[in-house]
Hints:
single chain, mainly beta, 1 helix, about 40% strand
Amino acid sequence: MFEYRxxxxxxxxxxxxxxxxxxxxxxxxxxxxxCERVALDCLEGNELKAYEFDATRLKFVKGPSAxxxxxxxxxxxxxxGGPTTRSRRV
Length: 90
């Protein structure tokens, strides 16, 4: 089993050094080759823009907001989800 670690902070703001796109990190993924990819979201007007970048191209701008930190803490302490094992009456 492989273990992947990332220095990317979910909820923090990053800027792509090549395109100049700036947004909030919403997830990190790893390709089969080990390439670390990061999705950045940004609200432009009323439209949500989302792009994925190589982590090596990103520059840290600022840490997560207080709201993101609070949500992360809630999610970490929440009970795991998934389908129920109890039978349901129809």
